[in-house]
TrEMBL record:
This is MFS transporter. Its main location: membrane. GO terms for molecular function: hexuronate transmembrane transporter activity. GO terms for cellular component: membrane. It comes from the Bacteria. Keywords: Membrane, Transmembrane, Transmembrane helix. It is a multi-pass membrane protein. It is found in: Membrane. Residues 12-420 form the Major facilitator superfamily (MFS) profile domain. Pfam families: MFS_1. The chain crosses the membrane at residues 51-70, 77-96, 162-185, 267-288, 300-318, 358-381, 393-416. InterPro entries: MFS (IPR011701), MFS_dom (IPR020846), MFS_Na/Anion_cotransporter (IPR050382), MFS_trans_sf (IPR036259).
Length: 424
């Protein structure tokens, strides 16, 4: 193939990566401040689970709303609205005075953050050919991990020098800086002045008009392919929320990790997730380049990733902090590799005009799972904390998390056995 005159699509990926990093930085702040806020506001584990649930419920609603809206108004405007709302919400946490007000601001944060993935997946589908989408998704999705790595470095430092309120203000303000670059540099491929004709043809930018009318949701919900994505998100997203919101306190409770200082264990764990996200996207792209079918490329890779998460079931038998870090690092890396391919399934199964809507529907399902799972988490941990054995509660949760991905892959295979794109 002749060399492309431009590779502007990778600059688009960098914008998506930056936004996703900010997205996860903002949502991760509260988990790192949890021990401090528990002392200040006298929270129980159940109180904290309710705050997490407020975010998850709003996030579910936001996911499906932005999914519907972005297929109609486009990624540029939709993403801008999303980032503006969540950045304001993140900063408002600084004036919270009790668990209820934290819940209100977490809900507002969720209402904004739900636009991140529908907009990003829509942009990747428009800007990349099928064989590169999983890799591009893996790159921007690695921002979830970079945000989780930056947070343990930045938040404790701000906490120690300026207090917990400043941690919310500083991290929330970063989104407004990103908005300037997004508005200047992003446009759909067909209208972008910096893309060459060769690159436009290469990415398929002329094959489907971005102005096609969006599909009807009821029609989408009748399709098995939609339910394949829904089940994948419903069963595995709660595991990632558990990793984000409870791993810091698990390490603090079990191994006395000090969350008021930059935490090397958390940095290692979330850094490994970055490798998994990019590597997981690259692997399926490599299989496709070798002539494998989309069906085999995605499912074989996702089966391997699912197996890599199973070992967290034996964390209860680990005798040292570093053994636990190794098992958790493997699990979060495998989750992000899984996630990059799960999101890419949508563009495998649906035309461009339906991608954001399906991502929104599936994302809502994943968020509802994430909304219900904290009820179990909070109840288990409070029960076993009262018995003097909170570690037992965590062990039960790790068994549930370790088995979720194999069940999810079975559901995906039964609902979409050949990964053939549906017409819409």
């Amino acid at each position: 193939m002749p060399k492309l005159q431009t590779n502007y699509r990778w600059q688009i990926t960098s914008l998506l990566f930056a936004a996703t990093t900010i997205n996860y930085l903002d949502r991760q702040v509260i988990s790192l401040l949890k021990p401090t806020l528990e002392r200040v506001f006298i929270w129980t584990e159940t109180d904290y689970s309710h705050i997490v649930m407020a975010f998850q419920g709003a996030y579910a609603l936001s996911f499906v709303t932005f999914g519907w809206g972005i297929d109609r108004i486009g990624s540029k405007i939709g993403y801008s609205i999303s980032v503006f709302i969540w950045s304001i919400a993140a900063m408002l946490h600084a004036i919270a005075s009790n668990a209820f007000s934290f819940g209100i601001f977490r809900a507002l944060l969720g209402l904004g953050e739900g636009g991140n993935f529908p907009a990003s997946i829509k942009a990747v589908t428009e800007w990349f050919p099928q064989k590169e989408r999983a890799f591009a998704t893996g790159i921007f999705n690695s921002g979830t991990n970079i945000g989780a790595v930056v947070a343990p470095l930045l938040v404790p430092w701000i906490l120690g020098h300026y207090g917990w309120q400043a941690a919310f203000l500083v991290t929330g303000a970063i989104g407004f800086i990103w908005l300037i670059f997004w508005w200047i540099y992003y446009e759909s491929p067909a209208r972008h002045k910096k893309i060459s004709a060769q690159e436009l043809v290469y990415i398929g930018g002329l094959s489907q008009s971005n102005t096609e009318s969006a599909v009807n949701w009821l029609d989408l919900l009748k399709r098995r392919q939609t339910w394949a994505f829904i089940m994948g998100k419903l069963l595995t997203d709660p595991v990632w929320w558990f990793f984000l919101f409870w791993l810091p306190s698990f390490l603090a409770a079990t191994f006395h990790v000090d969350l008021t200082r930059p935490s090397l264990p958390l940095i290692i764990i979330y850094s490994s997730a970055t490798i998994g996200s990019v590597g997981g996207g690259y692997i399926t792209g490599y299989f496709l380049q070798r002539g494998w079918s989309v069906n085999w490329s995605r499912k074989i890779a996702m089966f391997v990733f699912a197996l890599c998460i199973v070992p967290i079931m034996v964390i209860q038998f680990a005798s040292s902090l570093w053994q636990v870090i190794g098992l958790l690092s493997l699990a979060v890396a495998a989750h992000q590799a899984w996630s990059a391919n799960l999101f890419t399934l949508v563009s495998d199964l649906f035309p461009k005009k339906a991608v954001s809507s399906v991502v929104g529907i599936g994302g809502m399902a994943g968020s509802l799972g994430g909304l219900l799972f904290p009820i179990l988490v909070g109840s288990l941990l409070d029960t076993y904390k009262a018995l003097g054995s909170i570690t037992t509660g965590y062990n039960i949760l790790f068994v549930l998390c370790g088995s979720a991905y194999l069940v999810a892959l079975l559901c995906i295979h039964l609902l979409a056995p050949s990964l053939k794109q549906t017409t819409a």
